[in-house]
């Protein structure tokens, strides 16, 4: 709706939540997420430990929840972008897995818009 435009990423196609949850399982654990970071923001160490990642349908909306010890610049938006590609059969789970393990930075990463991205909690 017009009132939600600042708070959700509105798309006009169906997403396969099962495929997206399958992809979300791939990122759980400690990985080098350099492939999902804006190149100019790469650090000496780009490992993050993802404790939880999952998709849930709430009414007409899909909610992605991720919990990690840290996030790289653009990481969540790029991960969500690739998961939507998997949903639309534009990227396979195996290609996604190779991207995580190779750390190869994509020349054209799909980064979703910031609408809908909300930091809920920070634990120290």
Please tag this protein with its features:
19% strand, alpha+beta, globular
Can you describe what's shown?
The chain is of the alpha+beta class and 124 residues long. It has a three-stranded antiparallel β-sheet with strand order 1-2-3. Strand 2 and strand 3 form a beta hairpin. Helix 1 packs across helix 2. It is globular and about 40 Å long. The termini are far apart.
The averaged pLDDT comes out at 89
β-strand amount: 15-25%
Number of helices: 3
Distance between the termini: 36 Å
Largest beta-sheet details: 3 strands, antiparallel
DSSP, total strands: 3
- The stretches of 5 or more residues where confidence is low (pLDDT under 50) are none
> Given the helix and strand composition, which structural class is it?
alpha+beta
How would you concisely characterize the structure shown here?
This protein has 124 residues and is α+β, with helices and mostly antiparallel strands. It is built from 3 helices and 3 strands, in the order H-E-E-E-H-H. Strand 2 (47-58) and strand 3 (61-68) form a beta hairpin.
Which helices and strands appear, and what pairs or packs with what?
Layout: H1 17-26, E1 29-32, E2 47-58, E3 61-68, H2 75-87, H3 93-102
Helix pairs in contact: 1-2
